[in-house]
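FW: tagging you since you asked about this chain on Friday. Here's the raw sequence from the shared folder, copied in full. Didn't touch anything.
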Amino acid sequence: CNISDVLMLDVWKPQVGQKIGTVGLPLPGSAFRIVDPESFETLETGEEGMILIGGTQIMKGYIGDPEKTASVIKEIDGIRWYVTGDKGRLDEDGFLTIVDRYSRFAKVAGEMVSLGLVEREIAKTLGEHDQIAVAALPDEKKGEKLVLLLEGEMEADALKEQIKSLEMNPLFIPTEYFKVEELPKLGTGKADFKGLKKLALSLSESI
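HL: got it, structure written out here
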């Protein structure tokens, strides 16, 4: 579900003031709220959590699909909120910063790990023609594990050694590495995360 699915464009108005690196303030008649992604309790200013958007422009729901509606619309304190699926934070002036998508997080040993952050850190060790993508797969011991797919000239064993120099949190280090001919991509050229997870699962089950 995209935010454009639930917001009516005719109520959008220009914002006065800006902060570089943020997406700005809520639109007139709207509000942002940052909550714990599991309990939906409101978090303090500066804390990172699930971004909710509230206001009169929020849709009533999906026609004939109450389950999908319940998954993205939450009523808190008498206000209907749209669950964006994004992780972010609000500063003391109410400006919103988006950190990542919760769909691109893994819960490893009870800790939320951003797959995007892991990819950006590991990318520092890559050559010009190398690309990586990280997927989260179920793991009996830690809940989820990180699986890395590598495309390019570098070999997986060499990448493992390079990662050691990054001094990353051990929970952020992938458990399995696979060299692939090509990383899954959408027709737009962007990463195909569903295809990536499917490929990672297939490779992981083969060992």
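FW: The longest strand covers residues 79-90.
HL: agreed, and The chain has a mean pLDDT of 89.
FW: great, closing this out.
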